[in-house]
Amino acid sequence: MAVGIALPSSSRDYNGRLTLFVGLSCLIAAVGGVIFGYDIGISGGVTSMEPFLVKFFPEVYTRMKEDTSISNYCKFDSQLLTLFTSSLYLAGLMASFVASYVTRAFGRKLSVLAGGAAFLAGAALGGAAFNVYMLIFGRVLLGVGIGFSNQAVPVYLSEMAPSRYRGAMTNSFQLCVGFGVLAANLINYGTQKIKEGYGWRISLAMAALPASVLTLGAIFLPETPNSIIQRSNDNEKAKQMLQKIRGVEDVQMELDDLVNANAVSKMVNRPFRNIMQRNYRPQLVMSICIPFFQQVTGINVISFYAPILFRTIGFGESASLLSAVVTGAIGIVTTFISMLIVDKVGRRALLIGGGIQMSVSQTLVGCIIAAKLGDQGKLSNGYAFVILSLICIYVAGFGISWGPLGWLIPSEIFPLEIRSAGQSITVAVNFLFTFIIGQTFLVMLCHLKYGLFFFFGGWVVVMTGFVYLLLPETKGVPIEQMDSIWQEHWFWNKIIDKELKGKMEGE
Predict the structure, then answer these.
(1) Fewer CB in 10 Å around end: N or C, the chain?
(2) Residue 23 and residue 305: Cα distance in Å, rounded?
(3) What is the C-alpha to C-alpha distance for residues 337 and 264, in angstroms, rounded to an integer?
(4) Which of 428, 450, 452, 426 is nearest to 440 (CA)?
(5) Per-residue pLDDT at 36 exceeds 60
(6) Rounded to whole angstroms, what are the CA distances from 127 to 42, 146, 206, 329?
């Protein structure tokens, strides 16, 4: 039995093309991904810089430099150090629920603007920090900014993009995340060489640059037609916006679908309560499982702590930062490839292929470290290069699959009436498990050692099976016609058919 493949027969193509207006609007909004990626990359780099450790985490620096009895895997084990990294995601989790209300009641544009402004304040505070509490409070402000932007930007991109290009346009968010990570790694590599020891301040403060672009750019962003109808019921204004962003006069078919979706959404006063209903069960499961699986790939072990991980296996400070630059560049290239092929190959094939690639490379890394790196030993240059190569293969697998698609799929599957709530759940679950993994990774590295790679590799096997069995294909399906994919899926039609029949009979 072929499972998971469901191409809806009821889908239809809207008129329109990818206009320059849409392209520029989405480019500005996608800068929200740059600030997210910059923070991911910058935190791992500065926590491996010796002047930063001396100022804020002297006990970690002492263990790294002077304690020859402690295990390689435990030198960076500090709850305060991990709190510096993970506090952002706890703040982002809480902010995402506030952002859900703002996005629904006041529009996608305002949430993007609020996210950029909060991130700008956090960057200034982090760069000027003189104690660890100021440092962490700056991280909290950064988290508020990311909570708003990650909630609103994927929704904005998926609503603005024509359905046939939605995969590529929404994947631009993850591409920008990759650019942010690479930029952060390059800046870390450069500022680490500043002899006076203040390079970490430049690294943290430079986050203000993409935040300024997003904040100023958001002022000029147009609102999506979906949001215009949802907030004002002004069909004529929404039609004019549709004509502008699609580049054609005849947009009546798409407008009718938006109006009908809005009519349904008006009957839903409590989207968080309604998303729990049985007829939304597939979307609820995906909004929880996809961001959870995205995090248990172990990618943030690489993103947050790549320099620390490379130092653990014997690289020097400069070599560790340079290795992080290499993995960041590979992530960008493969995410760009994903953008080019996702609307041709489809979501399922990329997720399954990427999952196999990630699980195999993680297993091999675990095996080599288990066999060749002792508690006080050091890998030879040859084995260290092999591990770096395998980690690059792993990052490539993530960049082409779970990286961009972990944001794309949730942004396109929710009906309008639960869209802001569904995206908030997605962001909240993502941030919750990012926080948990970020806060526990150094402890897990200390206790599980090489077994950590087997742990994450096992989860990748589980999630690949989940995709094969339970995720239908969404390629090319108009966003307001997405309900049909669940009706034609071998498993989900058993869950929702009765509810849908009752709904249709009531109408």
Answers:
(1) N
(2) 34
(3) 37
(4) 452
(5) yes
(6) 12, 18, 8, 25
Amino acid at 404: P
Phi and psi at residue 140, to the nearest 5°? -65, -45
The 10 Å Cβ neighbour count of residue 212 is 17
CA atoms within 13 A on the CB side of 187: 25
Q: How many angstroms separate the CA atoms of 103 and 110, rounded? A: 7
Mind listing the pLDDT tens digit for each residue in 419-441?
Answer: 878 888 998 898 888 888 877 87
What letters, b where the CB count within 10 A reaches 16 and e where it falls short, cover 314-349? bbebeebbbbbbbbbbbbbbbbbebbeebbeebbbb
Q: What count of residues does the chain have? A: 507
Q: d(Cα 239, Cα 231) in Å, to the nearest integer?
A: 14
CB 298 within 8 A of CB 453: yes
Taking only the tens place, the pLDDT of each residue in 341-394 is 998 999 999 999 999 999 999 999 888 888 877 665 566 778 878 888 888 999
Radius of gyration of the chain (CA): 23
Q: How far apart are the first and last CA of the chain?
A: 35
Q: How confident is the model at residue 60 (pLDDT cuts 50, 70, 90)?
A: confident
Is 142 strand, coil or helix? helix
Note the pTM of the prediction, 2 decimals: 0.74
Of 45, 79, 83, the C-alpha closest to 306 is 45
Q: Is 427 exposed, middle or buried (0-12, 13-18, 19+ CB in 10 A)?
A: buried
233 sits in the region (left: phi over 0; alpha: psi -120 to 50; else beta) called left
- Cα(335)–Cα(177) distance, rounded to whole angstroms? 10
CB 91 within 8 A of CB 144: yes
340 closest CA partner among 217, 94, 477, 171 = 171
Closest CA to 441 of 42, 47, 33: 47
90 in Cβ contact with 144 (< 8 Å):
no
Provide the angle, in degrees to the nearest 10, between the axes of the packed helices 381-400 and 402-413: 20
